């Protein structure tokens, strides 16, 4: 039996699965079938490739961080999973690609937390998302992922915690391009709730003074998931 000979119901279900139209339980049951039915898995892959190809004709215009968070809450309210990973996906493919990321995650050397306690969108004044971050309460690490741009030559980007009226506290130098996990002390973790994170431009190695010395290029409120 070829892909085209699959039952019409299965062809429709594959499309619903890729588009994210199933409930969480229905999607989990359908996903279990993919390990047993290679032709069905191939059909799902075909759907994914077709939708991914549409992105070639869509100009990537990142929405303001606040707008994306509002869309994310409305689409995925109540869903458990790494929703914050989806920040920065452009345009009309957001819902379809969201499901692809949840059920077919890209394997990298540094994995995000499955259930982050906090989420932070670090965006510039124009709304451009610079970094997405999630705090892993099980390991006391902050997963950070660059979303746009790279530091200028001879500079680094440093992450700061701003809790209330307290002076900024460095959380470390951020990676240039790849995701990373930054260890977070118990003292810093206790201050995350309701705090703000900021990114400043610093010389190689980070701020020499223990306080931001360069321009602040992004900020983001720590949000509870």
From TrEMBL:
Keywords: Membrane, Transmembrane, Transmembrane helix. The chain crosses the membrane at residues 84-107. This is Anti-sigma K factor RskA C-terminal domain-containing protein. Residues 93-216 form the Anti-sigma K factor RskA C-terminal domain. It holds the Pfam family RskA_C. GO terms for biological process: regulation of translation. GO terms for molecular function: sigma factor antagonist activity. GO terms for cellular component: plasma membrane. PANTHER family: ANTI-SIGMA-K FACTOR RSKA.
